[in-house]
Amino acid sequence: MAHDKRHKGSNLGVTPQGEDFSAWYNELVLKAELADRAPVKGAMVMRPYGYRIWELLQSELDRRFKDTGHVNAYFPLLIPMSYLQREAEHVEGFSPELAVVTHAGGSELEEPLVLRPTSETMIGEMYSRWISSYRDLPLLINQWANVVRWELRPRLFLRTTEFLWQEGHTAHADADDAMAETMRMLGVYTEVARDVAAIPVIAGEKTPGERFAGAERTFTIEGMMRDGRALQSGTSHYMGTNFARAFDITFQDATEELQHCHTTSWGMSTRMIGAVIMAHGDDKGLVLPPRLAPYQVVIVPIAGRDPGAAGLVAAATDKLTSECRAAGVRVHVDERDASPGFKFNDWELKGVPLRIELGPRDLASGSAVLAQRVGAGAKEPVSLHDVAASLPARLDDYQGALLGRATAFLDDRRRSTDSWGVFADGVVGGFVDALHCGRPECEDDIKAATGATPRCIPSDGRPEEGLCVRCGRPSAWGTRVVFARAY
């Protein structure tokens, strides 16, 4: 009955999070017009509203990449199968997800070609051609691209057969420089998640069982979603000389000795849009941080049926729109032939941070009505004279409030324990910090018993020794490990 009432007269409602978080997510992605399911199983079509979020995230990342000395390039989608086979761990790790082309141009290919699951191998081949001297290092390149990984259990934005991402690939003269790069880019991801997406994350190193295939060390940022699950939101890998040896990426050092490069790779994808949806959304729909909102402010003119009043409202709307743009605000005017109530609900579903309602009565008093998507909540009258100038500060406050809310949620659902019972209860809807022996067999046992996996060894974890929460053997990492159920 509640379900019928929620949807009566409107298709905007979504299943409440507490009733079925998965259904809430799937419905919201479709109804907020972020994406749609493609005819190819497991693939998605990003609709303009969702793609605009990606463009805004892309611009924030790209600026930071260039500020840290990286340049963009592009490498082929098709990769010879033999390239993947040169690095044993790499091909083993990706083989279940590979999409392989065996025929083209009406005939069978001499060698199968793989649709890019990641580009370490192709870029390794090219780096072996481009690098010959220590003077060529470091080589810092990023690629914006699509990748294909054949997902058995797809979910829009989170796991799809094809998705968009950036992948950085760098080559260095020594391990110290490569590790500094690995951590620098982890810091960039942490900053973007926190300051742009308003998502607090735990940064740290993956355990060996969770490392990227072919890496010596993998680092991650882990965000908490509104259901208490973790989402890996960006990774940075130190490859050592594994790929350099596989692809003969060598250079002459200052003494003319031949050395193998130390390489890194790092990436963030459209999965981050899924993180924004699940870290901030509520039962009304999306809640977008202003720095990633396609429209930061929507103006809803309410003209009524009086032609004279309609003209005045239209003129005031045009003036306010120009003032908003001059203040650097992304603004949209909703002029659809629909009721104000429908428009209000629609923009709440789509997560627009601020809404301005403008009607004849407001004009008569030189004011408008400002509504905020979350936070203070209540509508407030604002002066038309200075509302546009106030919007950047209001949006900054809103951005900060979302980060504060998400941080409080993470803190409330994260606990530390040495008790297996508390651990098992805690990972049902949150993060648990616990000592761990580091054995893959124990990780598998924990996952089988609770569904939780080690998300990372936190970079800011305090030194601590003791016994594994599950098996009682000595802990391996000298600090606690964060465990959670994850997407």
Report what the structure shows.
With 487 residues, this protein is of the alpha+beta class. The protein has 3 domains: 15-280, Bira Bifunctional Protein, Domain 2 (BirA Bifunctional Protein, domain 2), CATH 3.30.930.10; 297-394, 3-Layer(aba) Sandwich (Rossmann fold), CATH 3.40.50; 414-484, C-terminal domain of ProRS (Translation Initiation Factor IF3, 2-Layer Sandwich). It is built from 15 helices and 23 strands. The strands form 5 sheets. An 11-stranded mixed sheet has the order 3-7-8-14-11-10-9-22-23-21-20, with helices on both faces. The protein has a 5-stranded mixed sheet with strand order 16-15-17-18-19, with helices on both faces. It has a 3-stranded antiparallel sheet with strand order 4-6-5. It is globular, with a radius of gyration of 25 Å.
Quick description:
With 487 residues, the chain is α+β, with helices and mostly antiparallel strands. Helices cover 36% and strands 26% of the residues. Helix 3 packs across helix 7 (175-195).
